[in-house]
Amino acid sequence: xxxxxxxxxxxxxxxxxxxxxxxxxxxxxxxxxxxxxxxxxxxxxxxxxxxxxxxxxxxxxxxxxxxxxxxxxxxxxxxxxxxxxxxxxxxxxxxxxxxxxxxxxxxxxxxxxxxxxxxxxxxxxxxxxxxxxxxxxxxxxxxxxxxxxxxxxxxxxxxxxxxxxxxxxxxxxxxxxxxxxxxxxxxxxxxxxxxxxxxxxxxxxxxxxxxxxxxxxxxxxxxxxxxxxxxxxxxxxxxxxxxxxxxxxxxxxxxxxxxxxxxxxxxxxxxxxxxxxxxxxxxxxxxxxxxxxxxxxxxxxxxxxxxxxxxxxxxxxxxxxxxxxxxxxxxxxxxxxxxxxxxxxxxxxxxxxxxxxxxxxxxxxxxxxxxxxxxxxxxxxxxxxxxxxxxxxxxxxxxxxxxxxxxxxxxxxxxxxxxxxxxxxxxxxxxxxxxxxxxxxxxxxxxxxxxxxxxxxxxxxxxxxxxxxxxxxxxxxxxxxxxxxxxxxxxxxxxxxxxxxxxxxxxxxxxxxxxxxxxxxxxxxxxxxxxxxxxxxxxxxxxxxxxxxxxxxxxxxxxxxxxxxxxxxxxxxxxxxxxxxxxxxxxxxxxxxxxxxxxxxxxxxxxxx
Length: 609
Known about the structure:
This protein is mainly α. Among the domains are: 22-164, Butyryl-CoA Dehydrogenase, subunit A, domain 3, CATH 1.20.140; 316-435 and 523-576, Orthogonal Bundle (Neurolysin, domain 3). It contains 25 helices and 5 strands. The protein has helices at 22-43, 53-83, 88-117, 120-127, 136-146, 152-164, 166-179, 199-203, 208-224, 226-247, 252-260, 264-276, 278-291, 316-330, 332-343, 380-399, 411-431, 437-472, 479-494, 507-510, 524-543, 548-557, 563-571, 578-586, 589-605; strands spanning 181-185, 191-195, 347-348, 360-364, 369-373. The strands form 2 sheets. A 3-stranded mixed beta sheet has the order 3-5-4, sandwiched between helices. It has a two-stranded antiparallel ribbon with strand order 1-2. A hairpin with a 4-residue loop joins β4 and β5. α17 (411-431) crosses α21. The longest helix is centred in the last third of the chain and has 36 residues, at 437-472.
């Protein structure tokens, strides 16, 4: 595969040979026909009992196949619209796929009907059938969801309305922000128009003046679409709250906890530990601010590297070699998989206009292949992003031979694999004797900045979203109030590490995660995954490569039981008490001490010190 300084483009031909070609058209038609047929058959079935069990089993198995095919199509279109936000044809097809997904949800409504009415003994007998045993956990989650469902007619109406309502607001946000550009004034005073996909990297430039200029220009652009963003945010939250009320969901966090696959006591234990140990994360930012000769930081520079003469910037080839070498030193199988991804062109990283901001990993359960999307700008943080997304891909790769329904794992466990890969990268680079001290400092700075983000920034997002949903329950929340809520929350969580003028009032608009319609509270699972990954990394350090088979067992089990049970069975840990989470946070003390020593050495070696 050819590699350039600015990254590479991916190959999507294994999804379909050509966009809207005969293969894709035939695939869509067959899928639509089969969804309609399944809906008709399921709708005609009577209640789930001994006589209808075989027919309902067929519905489950057919639904599993249809979901697999729909995921294949959705992943393909998601890749296209992310990489080419300006292409209206791709956006139209994505909207059409959303409509097809709504039709499939109507089949799901029939399954909810069957599971809601059946008694517990009959349900247990049903999922004990030979072909359903491997996906019993997934079916138990369907039954749990059925307990909070409306009538079939109401659920079908909700599925229809979501196409042009809830999901449409999310698509609008993606389309508008994918085309958004901002004015960037460089150090020579020249004004340039930059795509928003470059905004985050420019804000994280080691040169803080570049970061400040990007932040100011970007926020002027976000201010220009703030009304649209607020309308989308209010519509998404308002729709959810209305549906929760009709479905009998007592609290907006209940749905988030269900999607995350955890109990409320687990979430509360984690945040009790975070707030008790919050000074650990703040100490990371204090150490950096002291090195900069300041008392704090601006929110926009929370991921910016240290302004050293050596920036750590590299070409795409250098970045991939760093990741592969770090994986080689600790986890050779992961390194081999990563190299195969590069050879097969499963990564999209080229820097160009009209790409959606952010990064993600997706996969097709039909082909068993994964794809990684990002924008590579040469920054050290891009290398971490690459390792992060490859961690996701490896997780999917390990699950590829399981039943599709057993591959559905919650985001809490998804983020563990990606952050574990980040830790492998950081430790591999740090252990490499050929890595200069400045490079080690930059890598440690990046890793600890990531820790501060996950403990402070993500907590800010979680607390902001809780406050927003509470206020949204009483009516729409205007732009001015959203700005105030965001700034107040940032100051409360960051404490004295945030400069007096350091808050970002438009973060609620610029953060894509608030506008993802398929998942609510797309935030705390990152912190959960980070802290769980810290615990896994500690086990890995203790046990060495002997730990890796247990780690892979953990990943393969993530779609087959509750989060608490998976961790208990494979890792022997209890998540419902603060002690586990406190230990994970305390594991940051050693790298923080190392960070302070390296900062002191860098300060002593700098001219004029």
